[in-house]
Amino acid sequence: MTTIGFIGVGELALYTIKGLRRGGYSGAVLLSPRNREKADYLQQQFGCSVQANNQAVVDNSDFVFIATRPESCLDALAELEFKPGQVLISVVAGIEIEQLRTVLPAELEIVRAMPVSSAEAGSSPTLIYPEHDFVRQLFDYCGNAIIVDDEACFSQGSILACVYCWYFSLFQALIDATGGVKLPTGLSAELVMGMARGAAELALASKDVPPGDIAEAIATDGTFSKLGLDLLKNESAFEPWREACRLLQERLAESG
Length: 256
Ligand SMILES: NC(=O)c1ccc[n+]([C@@H]2O[C@H](COP(=O)([O-])OP(=O)(O)OC[C@H]3O[C@@H](n4cnc5c(N)ncnc54)[C@H](OP(=O)(O)O)[C@@H]3O)[C@@H](O)[C@H]2O)c1
Prior knowledge:
The protein is of the alpha/beta class. Helix content is 52%, strand content 14%. It has an eight-stranded mixed β-sheet, with helices on both faces. It is elongated and about 65 Å long. Bound molecules: NADP nicotinamide-adenine-dinucleotide phosphate. NADP nicotinamide-adenine-dinucleotide phosphate binds at residues 7-12, 32, 34-35, 54, 67-70, 72, 76, 91-93, 114, 116-117, 161.
């Protein structure tokens, strides 16, 4: 049976492992010991095994996740010795394969992946580069793997792992704007998230129709939807979202 290991047991390791287990993944999962509280919790609740040190994780794993913050990643990897046939899965944002290679053996297979925290709810759309059968299967346990065959495409796509976070703030703003005395906050929240899921599901099911066209088809003359959409457009409400994406694109280009 294949063994996977994590170097770096923080938020990403936590939600990814929860997602894997809840999705039915039963293989061995080894953990680095730093951040002992989280590692112990995962060992007790999610059938993982905390190792004595990072090298022990590598020695006993077939697939090794590097899941430290970007600034610690190269130093952590430089201290490790890999065996032939192992695969490194890097979930580190903004560090390209060429940079990882500077501290790793030339023959080590490297796959990048970008799971988000909805993995723990079984619904992370996880970008993967390049294609790797086992890595794809792994991320299908906690959502759906999306394979790309170009690293520039992976980097551009990983901006959306941050947009994912911004959605929560948008949800909160909409809950605050609509919830209150007449509509209890709990119901408002259920509707805000339910409408977002409904819109996403319709857009995903209508692959040939751009989402902008779906909006225009709903917001016809005289509708309340058009009243609000026109105000958002007049206020250039979507422009800061584009700017935020451009900012991330610039930062990723600088770090890559
Ligand atoms: N969180 C997300 O939503 C998300 C989404 C996509 C991608 N990512 C990527 O995932 C990576 C991890 O993010 P995170 O949110 O999980 O960060 P985090 O919560 O800060 O976890 C990183 C963990 O790595 C540990 N660490 C640092 N150096 C280490 C070393 N040499 N050996 C073993 N462990 C070490 C840290 O310990 P200390 O706290 O003691 O330093 C910390 O427990 C980042 O590179 C990020 O770009 C995160």
